Amino acid sequence: MKAFTQVDGLVCPLDRANVDTDAIIPKQFLKSIKRSGFGPNLFDEWRYLDHGEPGMDNSQRPLNPDFVLNQPRYKGAQVLLARDNFGCGSSREHAPWALEDYGFRAVIAPSFADIFFNNCYKNGVLPIVLPEAAVDQLFAETAAADGYTLHIDLAAQTVTTPSGAVFGFDITGHRKHCMLNGLDEIGLTLQHADEIKAFEAKHKQAQPWLFG
Amino acid sequence: MAAQTLYDKLWQSHVVSQSDDGTCLIYIDRHLVHEVTSPQAFEGLRLANRTPWRVDSVVATADHNTPTDHWELGIQDPISRQQVETLDSNIKHFGAKAYFPFKDLRQGIVHVVGPENGATLPGMTVVCGDSHTSTHGAFAALAHGIGTSEVEHVLATQTLTAKKSKAMLIKVEGELGQGVTGKDVALAIIGEIGTAGGTGYAVEFGGSAIRSLSMEGRMTLCNMVIEAGARAGMVAVDDKTVEYLKDRPFSPKAEQWDAAVAYWKTLVSDEGATFDKVVELDASKIEPQVTWGTSPEQVTTVGGKVPNPAQLEDPVKRASLERALSYMGLQADTPIEQIQIDKVFIGSCTNSRIEDLRAAAAVAKGRQKAANVKLAMVVPGSGLVKQQAEAEGLDKIFVAAGFEWREPGCSMCLAMNADRLEPGERCASTSNRNFEGRQGQGGRTHLVSPEMAAAAAIAGHFVDVRTFA
Question: What span is annotated as the signal peptide, if there is one (chain B) (predicted)?
Fold first, then answer.
């Protein structure tokens, strides 16, 4: 996993609530057995005017000029600004894989769906919850200024606007440690292998029917 | 000791360790695996030269990509086939307690297969790379969906890192009316608390209406708790739970059975246990539900109407409603019963079990699918459900009524196989998500119970199953 320390990123606004993971990456692309290459199909049904299938040359497909990701001013965006309950629905980790592959490093929203929120941390994509009023302000400022960027500092747990306004955000110590260092969580957990074994032995004694 | 909720008990009995910030390592008892969200996890193990911690926790099946007809031809789509074959080879290489591959009699939707084989037991932690893993909470298990990185983490360590959620009790008291099902209760709850109402919570369903539901009805209810934003839903153990599990292939046997049942009976919330939030519904007021929009919270009763955006003051909500109606091709104020449909899908991990099929068949019996309905398909949840339905003659009832009787799988719930809606087609569906494009790009989904779906197939439009004659 790519470590996340600081990002100065162009902001792309996606002004709708309840964006589900089916919209972030439609089902036909889930047939891949790889972890990479989902970026060109991020938001496929909104982004292109034709029907997308795996294996198509996406550079030849007709783009939907009305979709925000296709507007030249948001080219190269690294921060996605979103609304409530972002990432609801299916648990597919292909959603953060697609966001990351496209180039997004962070998503800012007033709330996220639990599974998506959790999946982001495993892939170096930082989900940031800010109060609704702050998100409203960022939407307004993004619309008002071309090339609007935000400075995100994970160690300090802050989002800073171009005018110097600072918003703090929460993250658990464990997630922060893993993100800052780009750590393999499995490796960390296996440091507790003896505890897991001890728990397992006790658990097996209490409920032997769970084993075998 | 302080009174505990069922969730407290399930959580506490699986904590391996806890760090200062409250993050815990939670032990996982059952790991359900399907072909879509596992290949990258197995690949991760291989690349790191790791082996599964405990293969006897793994129960696997292929369900999302499998076709529902012409099994003799195999899987026609080469990339779907490759994904299913990848699961075959991963299970062969790494092992599992049980694997039900494509065409196996016990193959089917993972959330139907687990319970019917007794692979889901009370007191377990159950995970799967699939959001509808919440289904298994019907057995007083702590069950929730995980991402693929976590699938790999569970394979490698038998644990997950997690923080405890808040606890919510959704209490449904009273008697459900005739023709009102677990599906209607689920949709009514989502309509009440919203699609994010359960975010951050583990939900326990309680009250007399919940206790009156069969295990299958409880599975339907827990299945859809994720559509209210809660990762996990659960129902306390009672005699129905125990009765259901008796003599299932992987249920405890002989002397272990009695010990297990004694333990399972403790899996209820203690008298006086407190919840962070309590929501109460009156069962007698719940009517058959039909969704009209592109989120499960956009739901009304069969006697209701499509809402009118002009009545909303908040411009953001109005724009969102207008977008949903535009996608759905619906006019404001249209009575639900006047909405004509093109297709009917009876199936999915929400509603493809034997009771669902019996209920739909009872409505379809001796009747004919309406001429405007191009396709009414019935997709049993597993090979065992299919076998049971055929033994009862349900397949013949469906076929005589002009429905198609298919092979088991996820099918048109998410349309990863060839079963899908074409752009603009409108479907009465017993599945769980009416998102844009979920059942096929441009497809329009209305979520209903199996009875309501069958009635819509016969009438050609939505109709109140309680008065349908």
Answer: none
Mind telling me how many Å the CA of B55 is from chain A's nearest CA?
9
Burial of B370 (0-12, 13-18, 19+ CB in 10 A): middle
Q: Consult the annotation and say whether B128 binds a ligand.
A: no
Within 8 A of B146 by CB-CB distance, chain A residues are: 91, 115, 118
Four-way CATH pick for B288-467: 3.50.50.60, 3.30.499.10, 3.40.50.720, 3.30.200.20: 3.30.499.10
- Asked if B12 has any chain A CB less than 8 Å from its own CB, the reply is no
Q: Which chain B residues touch A200 with a CB distance below 8 Å?
A: 27, 54, 158
SS3 sequence, chain A? CCCCCEEEEEEEECCCCCCEHHHHCCHHHHHCCCCCCCHHHCCHHHHECCCCCCCCCHHHCCECCCCHHHCHHHCCCCEEECCCCECECCCCCHHHHHHHHHCCCEEEECCECHHHHHHHHCCCCEEEECCHHHHHHHHHHHHHCCCCEEEEECCCCEEECCCCCEEECCCCHHHHHHHHHCCCHHHHHHCCHHHHHHHHHHHHHHCHHHCC
For chain A, which residues make up each domain, given as ranges?
Answer: 6-181
Please indicate whether, in this complex, the C-beta atoms of B229 and A200 are within 8 angstroms of each other: no
CATH of domain A6-181: 3.20.19.10
Class at the top of the CATH hierarchy for domain B6-277: alpha beta
Buried/exposed B102-122: b ≥16 CB within 10 Å, e otherwise: beeebbbbbbbbbbbbbbbbb
Residues B418-446 have a mean pLDDT of 97
What tens digit of pLDDT does each residue of B87-139 get? Answer: 999 999 999 999 999 999 999 999 999 999 999 999 999 999 999 999 999 99
Task: List the one residue out of B347, B354, B345 whose CA is nearest residue B115.
Answer: B354
Pairs of CB atoms within 8 A across A/B: 184
Tens-place pLDDT, residues A124-156: 999 999 999 999 999 999 999 999 999 999 999
Among partner residues A172, A193, A195, which is closest to B163 by beta-carbon distance? A172
Q: Which regions of chain B carry the CATH code 3.30.499.10? A: 6-277, 288-467
For chain A, what is the largest distance between any 2 Cα atoms, rounded to a whole number of angstroms?
Answer: 64
Query: Do A123 and A96 meet the contact criterion of CB atoms below 8 Å apart?
Result: yes
What ipTM describes this predicted complex?
A: 0.97
Yes or no: say if B373 and B345 are a contact pair by the CB < 8 Å rule. no
Q: Is the pTM of this model over 0.95?
A: yes
